[in-house]
Specification:
The chain is elongated. A hairpin with a 6-residue loop joins strand 6 and strand 7. Helix content is 46%, strand content 12%. The strands form two sheets. A four-stranded parallel beta sheet has the order 2-1-5-8. It has a four-stranded mixed beta sheet with strand order 4-3-6-7, with no helix packed on it. By secondary structure, the protein is an alpha/beta fold. 33% of the residues are buried. It comes from Shewanella submarina. This is YbgA family protein. InterPro entries: 2-thiour_desulf, DUF1722, UCP037004.
């Protein structure tokens, strides 16, 4: 499942993370994981809200000031206020980003921070880490299902794998819609994602089944609600116990095909993963090996076995 130059997913990214000198001090916050590795798999679309409204670099720094329910963007001395300009930019820019398959943000930024952005009380240096960057908020409000993450959090292998699982699933759905979504195609889509959804959150997975079974005349609305819950399900981090249960469900399809020794080998691989002795890649690789020997179309079609390119190495670390 390698990405070619013609089918790379486009991901929005804070421009400073690509090494562009757009920060207030004229520097950058280049993220090597983006520039050295992810660039081989994705097209990046850089955005710097501050530069976009003409602030330049270097420039006077701005911060969020919370005045009642209103978020202002001002310099520390209050002499510079770009609240109106930034709002106008955000309203305009997010409308142009419907084609994106994901977004990577710069942490702590008053415009691009995803969470824990400093919000200052007016006229003071008292702040709480309770804000969201104004551009990031506009983006997430406009596209609530869009996979969004901060690059620093991608050092956590669980968060990294979860993010890119969502990116590829989101792209899969967008392609389905572009090709013409029908009830039959939605049922097939849900069938392919059965075990991936089960691994992420079994409660929400069980909610999705009846939604697919009861598709009616209001199909467009129902499909949108399905996708909302679908992405909500994948946003939950798949715990080891859920992966173990999912692997055991898949194992059941081999009960007549495998020899006693092969069954024991697969059981051991799954249990060693459950105990943290092996990464998830080990039982997944063994299952894929047995599928080559004993083809099963339903299991082979399961996205769970390959939710993203193997070259991204996302199942090596946990």
């Amino acid at each position: 499942m390698s990405q070619t130059e013609t089918n790379k997913i486009t991901i929005g990214v804070s421009a400073c993370l690509l090494g562009q000198n757009v920060r207030f001090d004229g520097g950058h916050k280049r993220a090597p994981y983006c520039t050295d590795e992810l660039v081989n798999f994705f097209e990046f679309e850089p955005v710097c809200p501050e530069m976009a409204i003409g602030m330049g670099a270097p420039r006077k720094s701005i911060r969020q000031v919370k005045d009642g329910d209103v978020i202002l963007l001002q310099s520390a001395d209050g002499k510079l206020d770009v609240t109106a300009e930034m709002k106008a930019f955000c309203d305009m820019k997010v409308e142009q980003l419907a084609h994106l398959g994901g977004y990577l943000l710069c942490a702590k930024s008053p415009t691009c921070g995803m969470e824990r952005v400093l919000e200052y009380a007016p006229g003071t240096n008292n702040a709480t880490k309770s804000g969201t960057g104004v551009f990031a908020k506009a983006l997430m409000d406009k596209y609530p299902e869009l996979p969004v993450e901060e690059t620093g959090r991608l050092h956590d292998m669980v968060l990294r794998e979860n993010y890119f699982t969502r990116v590829y699933a989101y792209n899969d759905w967008q392609q389905l819609k572009a090709d013409g979504l029908t009830k039959h195609k939605l049922v097939q889509f849900h069938s392919r994602y059965k075990y991936l959804l089960m691994a992420h959150n079994q409660k929400l997975y069980r909610e999705l089944g009846p939604m697919v079974a009861n598709l009616g005349d209001d199909f467009e609305r129902q499909a949108g609600e399905y996708f909302r819950v679908f992405m909500q399900t994948l946003k939950h981090h798949a715990p080891r116990r859920n992966h173990t249960s999912t692997l055991q469900h898949i194992q059941g399809y081999f009960k007549r095909a495998l020899s006693k020794q092969q069954k024991a080998e697969l059981t051991d691989a799954i249990l060693e993963y459950r105990e943290g002795l092996q990464p998830l890649l080990v039982p997944i690789t063994l299952i894929n090996h047995y599928l080559r020997e004993h083809p099963n179309e339903y299991i082979q079609d399961q996205v769970y076995l390959k939710p993203h390119p193997q070259e991204l190495k996302l199942r090596y670390g946990y």
